[in-house]
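LOG
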Amino acid sequence: MICADSDRAIRHGVNEYAPRAAYNGLMTRRSSILILASLAVAVSAHAQAPTPSDPAALLKEARQLENGGQLTEALARYRQALEQSGSQVEAHLGIGRVLDVEGKYGEARQHIQKAIELAPDTLQNPALSTMAVAYAFEGQAAESAKYFQKVFDRQVAAGAPEAAAGTANALGRVYLETGDATNAEKWYRTGYDTARKIAKRSPEDVDLWDMRWHHAQARIAARRKQPEAARKHADAVRTIVEKGTLDESQRASYPYLVGYVAFYEGRLDEAIAALSKADQEDPFILSLLAQAYGQTKDQAKARELYQKILGIHGHSLQVAFSRPLARKRLAGG
């Protein structure tokens, strides 16, 4: 999330722990970015439409359309690019991402699997991570874990402990949000231990990963119905945040944590108050907030939030955990 647990995956699912401030903007689209992206797409399309025989131009426009939330148009461009060159990894991944967001999970994974088969070594991690996120859309933690594990092992072998730690945390989060606290704790601990292998860690780096580890433990304790442990770790997060060594994107994760713990303890009014101070462009936070409003019988507010979630189109763990639920609740489920 961006969230303190560094639980924000890159939009295409590569790594939920983008270095410090970077990952806060990569996962969920800010309103201003959506507007600018849409305008850029409109201007570009008007100025020079790609020719049917130009896969590179089609892919470029498809990415712009996808980033701007114009999924139908993006899918059409990705398919056009694929027709021009059936072995294009990026076209398969793009189609897979868009289909996932649209709820067409089986077809999405067929394209992502094809991308994995075709991807050179340099593109294996993005392709594997995309599949891991794809399985999270249906809550299939064991299948998601297979692909995150492959990415983690490759990152460790490549001597990239920071990236590997982020992948471990992403896997921990998949397990936690699908109800497996034991495996969640295992992988969050793996992430923390792996991060300690980062060479020449600064005091800020130490605080960052300590904060993420306490953040994860607080959420795990909340899911286990251990309120004292959850609050103890939440207090540790607050202490680190108040030191002022972390950037704003990391400090902003504290209200989310307070709201998360309160929600799973059944203190709904406190959860709503805290979550309302957290990132209102993060679909997972909005999902928790919507569920809290729903349990307090404010169905109108809950529906408003679920509608907002459906307006967020990234291919990330945040979207994977929130969009299917929003679609279900709005359909009366």
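LOG (cont.) second protein
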Amino acid sequence: MRIGRLLRLLAAGVLLGWTLWLAGPAEVWGAARQARWSWIGAALLLVVVDRALNAYRWIALLAPTPGAHRPPVRAMLRVFFVSTYLGTFLPGSVGGDAVRTIGLNRLNVPAADAFASVFVDRFLGIVANLVMALAGLLLAGDLARDPAVMAGLVGTAGVCAVAAAFIFSRHAAAAGSGLAHRFSGRRSGRITRTAVDGLRQYASKRPVLLVVLAASIGVQVLRILQAYCLGRSLQIGVPVSVYFALIPVILIVILLPISVNGLGTTQLAFVALFARAGVEPADAFALSVLFLALGVAGNLPGGILYAIQPREEPRATWQRRQRQ
């Protein structure tokens, strides 16, 4: 585990340093100094809407949870924002998802339901990203001739197909549980079967899934507009259609478990893809740094909640309060 994290840190450092060297540190600094704060402020306002819509998505997915186990909205919001904050310092997006699952479980939500809500939330987010990336190919058809881009899209589509099979196919779910029981032992098989049962409950909740998918596509649009505002702040003179074509592909790159939280891979993707639109490497690198920094800024409210509020109540305390 530590070796894997060290390797990702090394990859992040190498990619970041190499891309910065290609772009030119002096040129990047010169581009960043010209940033217009009015456009950065507009991007920050979009982040507020982005986070609110993300929180709504997850809370909507908790609707199938039995009322006796459903925590107050205030408690769920705290878990959401704290997990996004802590996920900033954990490897990949999976770390934040694990924090959210554990936090929800501490609020008396069964582990299977907690895991399922976080898994489906992540799944629908990736599906929305894939939909936007495929739509982007209509705006930038030359991306379809890039082997790396197509490999990323095909890989993402494959992951989405497997996840959808576990949710909607009873036979696929049973096969997955059986394999886990056979190759991972009885205890792991039981855990996997419980998790799959939690996912299967969403097979009959298609209206909820459609609403959350629509909200997920809305989140992707907001992130593209955030990048556009940051580009305008750097006086990058490309139309918004370029951002709709390129940002969804970059967001898929950020999800790859190569580095830590997209460091290095994000910069490389921005520089390589925006070069297709005639953007200078220094401007693209500065844009990538601002884009990542914007995500960190959006996670800061969770840090404040983590610092000033008590942590989630133990399950026994919660259950006692429920009985009163």
